[in-house]
Amino acid sequence: MYRGIKRFFLLVLVAAAGPLAAQKSPNHQKMYPVDSEIYDALRALYISQGLALPSTTGPWSEGELLAMMGRLRSPEGETERGLYDRLYGELTREHGAAKLNLEASLEMRAHTNPDDFTTQDSYIRPWNYTKPLVEAGVDFYFGPLAYGLLSLPLAAQTYNGTVPSPDGVRELPSSMGYGPGAVSSNVFGLPPNTGITTLDFGGVPYRSLVSLGGDFWYLTAGRDRLSWGPGVSGNFLVGDHLQYHNNLRTSWFNDRIKYTYSISSFAYPGSYYDQYRIPHPDPERAAQGEYYYGSASDPYIRQYLVDHSGVTLASLYYGWNPVDRTKDDALLGVNLFIAHRLEWRVTDRVNVVLSEGLIHQGANGQTVDPSAFIPSMVLHNLYRKNLMNSILCLEADWTVMPRLNIYGQIVVDEFTMPGEKAPEEDGTASPPACGYMLGVKTVFPWGKGMFTGSFEAVYTDPYLYLRSEGVGSAVGGVYQGQVAGNRGVNFVVANRYRMKDGGFLYQEDFLGYRWGGDAIVLNARGDYRVFSAWSAGANLMFMAHGTHDKWTAWDTVYSSDSANSPRNYAAPTSSHDTANHADATAQARNAVSYTTAVSFMGSWNFWKTLSLYGEADFVVVANYGNIRGNTAADVQVTLGVTYSL
After folding, report:
1. Which of 42, 256, 507, 516 has the fewest CB atoms nearer than 10 Å to its CB?
2. Separation between Cα atoms, residue 367 and residue 388, nearest integer Å
3. How far is CA 363 from CA 70, 271, 320, 332, 508, in A?
């Protein structure tokens, strides 16, 4: 059956692309994804030969990977020589006008605690690793400069998330593959993915793009996963845990310098935070100037709209950009992540990388500032609390000797500059919001494969990636900080997925580090891989995570009710003193949670078309949910088989 389908597609492609069949010059514009085995092999060879890491800004074009190979010496050892030859053969093979790729995968997930571990956030294996049941893709090559990828998966809904609700309590939307049951799969039609409506109509395609480039540059537009940085447990500015970015990106590079400029578009927060402000239903609290916040589905809001039919929406709406709007255009707006990144190979052994990013939100009736689209602009200088928020990341790596690399990252979201109010001195100051990472990687050829090992330590401040909305609420003229539902221009973004009940889920994730702020993470990993054949590995992670999450409301250092009551601004926190956009009970959190996860993973490719893969994660969380004395444990198993044509 699969062979017949493949022949049919090939006949269509040959008929449609006949004029392009003869390529006069090689085309090296194919884009390799961030989890590419080709890049992993190149990185291993770099460390083994004593070179600083190759570019950590993925994805990469085939031409760029070939340029990376140009820095390598011809290996002397049999293992490295064989790997080098396989890589060169892969990157220099000739392409026709089009190539059909067809994969069919069966994947099963099981875990022992479906009561506590209910969303993909509680799974150790990243949820976007899930393979679709069937994925048909076509690579197009147009002369030497242009490349296109169209990939259409037939996938069951596997995402499972939380959404803000009118009463501020987390709700699980209807569905899906992770959490609610002990066993799930990627097969629609099998529980819990019963019925045609469990197909992922709203999230696909996960990867589809066009690219134009040459020997030292490329411009690509489409949908793909991104990853910026050398981290193993994650990266600070752009992490690879997001299912996709809707992205326009260009990179220019030579032997020493690589510059990348990138624009990603995410769902506008007004689409999923539909918040209104009315006088508080309690007359005494309303007399003190206190307001009540909720969505249009909230019974208090709904009744207020009925009782005050002459009141316009503009006077009720309390969002990030409170401007005049009607019921039809209240949710319109843009949410862009604009960033540029400069990688400098100072010496053969040392890299220094500087990245700057900007979240730019604009609602209907507001102008998107064209200054943000100037590649040479200092994005921090565009900061405006209601529209733009900037972030800065500095990275470096040093291969001290062959087979030993040291790397680090520092991210700055909020930092006290000389002359500004310091948190230790002024209770109305902004809390620090930074992150720090230090790690080491090693590589050893052994037998027919390569052993790679790493150890990484990460610290993130509690308010990293969070921000004030710029319009504080007041009771009796005293600043109360951020209120639930008014997130501000922060670095929590959302992709949209269609649910089986016909609604939409806006899955929110940190744009940068997967585990967010308020965390200390230690991660050790070891892998042995015979490239293109088999692999086996183990990972040990320990995480101390405070009470703050991606829905924590930002606030100043001191609380409003007492000048002697400091906010937590050192991680990990043991209390949640502010509001929370998705959990009205967040202030009940009273302890640091401690997660220990031991993971074993492996893969085996055989018959050239068939591969097996799997992972087992043993997880124990002390003070689960940041509640003292709660303990939860889970065994999470993923098994899959893929047939490729």
Report:
1. 256
2. 12
3. 47, 11, 9, 6, 19
Average pLDDT over residues 288-302: 61
- CA-CA distance, 97 to 212, in Å (whole number)? 15
Omega of the bond leading into 126 within 30 degrees of 0 (cis) = no
Closest C-alpha to 69, from 34, 40, 45, 36? 45
Distance between first and last Cα of the chain: 12
Q: State which H helix or E strand residue 136 sits in.
A: strand 134-142
Q: How far apart are CA 359 and CA 57, in angstroms?
A: 19
Residue with structure tokens 């042995």?
Answer: 528
Residue 611's DSSP bridge partners are 605, 642
> How far is 551 from 590, CA to CA, in rounded Å?
17
How far apart are the C-alpha atoms of 187 and 198, rounded to whole Å? 9
Q: What is the dihedral of CA 121, 635, 644, 128, to 10 degrees?
A: 0
Beta strands in 225-300 (DSSP E): 227-228, 245-253, 257-266, 276-279, 291-294
- The predicted-structure confidence for 339-376, as pLDDT tens digits, reads as follows 999 999 999 999 999 999 999 987 654 567 888 888 88
2-272+330-644 carries CATH number 2.40.160.130: yes
Q: Dig out the tokens for 37 from the structure.
A: 């085995």
* Per-residue CA distances from 149 to 98, 146, 222, 338, 597 (Å): 10, 11, 9, 24, 37
pLDDT, residue 474, reads 37
Confidence of residue 410 (pLDDT cuts 50, 70, 90): very high
Q: What six digits make up the tokens of 447?
A: 């037998």
Angle at which helices 78-92 and 62-69 pack, to 10 degrees? 150
For position 319, what pLDDT does the model report? 35
- CA–CA dist 518, 533 (Å, integer): 40
User: Would you kindly state where each structural domain of the chain is located, as residue ranges?
Assistant: 2-272+330-644, 276-316
Amino acid at site 239: G
Cα–Cα distance list, 618 to 113, 115, 286, 463, 622 (Å): 11, 16, 50, 29, 14
C-alpha to C-alpha distances, 467 to 395, 488, 549, 552, 571, nearest whole angstrom? 23, 5, 13, 10, 17
CB atoms within 10 A of CB 573: 24
